[in-house]
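Everyone, carefully examine this protein record:
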Amino acid sequence: MAVKIAKKLVHIVEGKKKTSKAKKAKQSVAWFKAKVGESAKGFKKKAILKPGKMYTFGYDAKLKKVLPYWDKFPLIIVLDVYPAGFMGLNFHYLFPVERMKFITKLMKFATESGEVENMSDKARFDMSWDVIRKLRHADKMIHKYLYGHVKTSLLEAPPNEWENAIFLPYQRFVGASSRAVWSKK
């Protein structure tokens, strides 16, 4: 059922079928519940960060008192790992339709070709900030994270779930609503 709902969402995002925003949200929630019902069995708990992989985690921003807004539950593709933290592209800073457009552009950097749902766990994105910085919206998504402020286990989204994971409605912005963040240029 989750795959069927996810495919419908992709078709909707790509504009192949006109659907109301309420119906899109309802389908996203249904897909999310189906995934939760499967106990997110595809996500690897306590993952070790590797550049080019997608992760989600709980975060408490170091500069939360001065930031206009920040995401408590980022969903990122890691670009670089440092001794004190890591840098990645947080999909939550984009409106859901833009997320699909962005990941479609990133697919040319994937180490495996073909349909995402057929990718192995070894697939990753082979790219750096210097290579993708000119992509539309990359500047909105790029963020650095400190290990000391990561508050939950790091969960790795397997490659065959990348397109589904970007639609999960669990962003939690502090300081602004999701809509306000998405409308920022």
About this structure: Strands lie at 54-56, 70-71, 75-81, 85-90, 142-146, 155-157, 173-174. Residues 42-183 form one domain. The chain has a mean pLDDT of 83. The chain is about 30% helix and 15% strand.
